[in-house]
Amino acid sequence: MKRFGKTCRRYAPLLICLLILDGFFSLLLWISDAEAQGRLTGLILLASIVFFAVIILILHIKETQKQALFQEFLTEPDEIHTEKLLRVVSESEGEQLQILQNVLMGNQEQIQQMSDALQDYEEYVEGWAHEAKTPLSLLTMLLDNRSEELSPPLQMKLDYVRSQLQEDVTQILYYARLGSSTKDYRFEMLDLEEALDEVLEDYKPLLEEKQFLIEKRNLTGEMVYTDWRGLQFMLGQIISNSIKYSTEAPELTVSMWHTDTADIVTIKDNGSGVKSYDLPYIFQKGFTGDATDSRKKATGMGLYLTKKMAEDLNLKLEAESQWGEGTKITIRFPKVQ
Fold this sequence. Notes:
The chain has helices at residues 2-10, 12-32, 34-75, 79-86, 91-145, 152-178, 192-202, 204-210, 228-244, 293-296, 302-312; strands at 187-191, 213-217, 223-227, 251-258, 262-269, 316-322, 326-334. The chain is α+β, with helices and mostly antiparallel strands.
């Protein structure tokens, strides 16, 4: 109906011309025969309005058909759709249509090439990440089974290198996955404490080096509905962030509580925290805040990827922080009906 109204407004000058012409003929009738003019004026006006309505209806149908064919052409500018559209446009429009088709086909070819290149890149990155896990596994096995042959300072350094490499590999792997068009998430009810314990085990060398005090509140038997690998990745990045920006006597508290609409997990540390003017940007890609010694080494990717993962899993991620007092990250899991 809205499109029909636009058609009427577009051709309104035609109706005005018809009415002016009717007035002219009525004047001629009045000059020649005033009595006939009185009888025929209404008929002439009615005929003109009907004629205008029929013309507008025909034009509206053609415009609607042309619009539909044009939308199909924009979606798939191949020869078939181009030929269909050429049948309902004028010759001059047809020439412009041919130019547009060439441009669109060229763009589609470039898009396809870029899509293929991106897919090759994603496959390469994922393959590289999986290949990189093999030497990391060997390093872990060496540290676990031959630790007595290593001096404590050397073992601590190797543990640090292993943990850092593991985190970097995990980040790049999930960065590639989050940008992929295909996702392999498996949503199910998961034991939150079990997932957390596995992540804490991965970061155990760094947590012990910093002498973290870990406290778990109300986690026993708690279940959340999400993807296992996605959940562990988020927990790992948040804990890694707490380790990077820890201060003396570091503490990490993980707790859970419930509302009518959500299951809420909070991860709180007593680290350096974030300044108030930086807080709104901590989930942005590449953001590292003030260039302190610890933040100079940061990539600004950890919390960014955590936020992207939360969006993929339909979770809500929030952050609170006070400079010099620590940071609290909240993950809201929607209630399963």
